[in-house]
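Re: that backbone. Tokens:
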């Protein structure tokens, strides 16, 4: 009996304010050429986790494609966990941090080919305050920006830019933090503390030069001050940062205490104000489709 290659395509129809019809047509064409079986699930923001769990259980896909942002990826990742079903990304959200770090090409056609291709990287997962984190969580100024962005009307990078000045004016930074790693506790005053499993934010800002998806650790990034020249460096390749601007601490588990409640986000989604954050690397990984050169470099770094 000939079993067709089965692909589940999860589409967030409203993410990023982008029409997904062209993306859907590209995927349909590629699956028709492969004579595979395609099932499309459109998220609705209501019972997605329960419905998608049932779809995956019944359909038993060989691969899952996702057209959306980091939130859509996280939805699928929370369902899969130990189930090693390869995931292919077609970035189409307001926050595309995970896709940005995979160095995906710019055209939908090329991205669709990679999403259905045979090159993969295994991505570490972090539990942050009992919630899955695939990319970057942070406490402080950036989380406050995300809160203001979510409350605004303009989507995409322009929306973040519009909210940047009001965020700086309203935020009560710097903040005081206590960070515990491997039994050692450090006191820091900072504008932002990040828990990073990758190198870059979705904006392309390269905040974590040591970040690797598949090295079994994450980095605690302590940004000590708001310094525009140093911030602009984050958009350069191989930039070096001054120690009084950024310190980096590798960890597989960490506890962060805030001396007052501070804005907090996970993978580009605001999670309110917190006074403590716990982070721990998990035992499971996600298998994600990526460009051939990215897979080769990831294999070398292990």
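Recovered sequence:
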């Amino acid at each position: 009996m000939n079993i067709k290659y089965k692909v589940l395509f999860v589409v967030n129809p409203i993410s990023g304010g982008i029409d997904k019809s062209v993306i859907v047509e590209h995927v349909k064409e590629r699956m028709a050429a492969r004579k595979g079986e395609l099932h499309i699930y459109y998220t609705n923001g209501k019972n997605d986790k329960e419905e998608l769990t049932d779809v995956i259980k019944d359909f038993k896909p060989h691969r899952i494609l996702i057209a959306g942002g980091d939130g859509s990826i996280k939805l699928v990742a929370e369902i899969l966990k130990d189930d090693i079903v390869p995931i292919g990304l077609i970035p189409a959200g307001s926050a595309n941090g995970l896709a940005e770090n995979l160095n995906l090409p710019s055209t939908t056609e090329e991205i669709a080919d990679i999403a259905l291709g045979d090159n993969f990287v295994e991505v570490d997962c972090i539990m942050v305050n009992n919630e899955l984190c695939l990319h970057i969580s942070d406490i402080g100024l950036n989380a406050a920006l995300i809160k203001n962005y979510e409350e605004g009307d303009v989507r995409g990078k322009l929306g973040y830019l519009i909210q940047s000045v009001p965020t700086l004016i309203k935020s009560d930074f710097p903040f005081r933090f206590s960070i515990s790693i491997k039994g050692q506790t450090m006191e820091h005053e900072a504008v932002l503390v990040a828990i990073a499993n990758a190198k870059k934010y979705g904006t392309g800002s390269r905040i974590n030069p040591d970040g690797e998806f598949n090295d079994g650790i994450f980095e605690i990034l302590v940004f000590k001050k708001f310094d525009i020249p140093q911030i602009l460096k984050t958009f350069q390749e191989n930039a070096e940062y001054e120690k009084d601007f950024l310190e980096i601490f590798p960890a597989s588990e960490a506890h962060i205490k805030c001396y007052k409640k501070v804005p907090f986000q996970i993978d580009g989604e605001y999670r309110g104000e917190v006074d403590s954050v716990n982070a721990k690397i998990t035992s499971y990984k996600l298998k994600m489709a990526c460009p051939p050169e990215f897979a080769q470099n990831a294999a070398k770094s292990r």
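The two ends are 39 Å apart (CA to CA). The mean pLDDT is 85.
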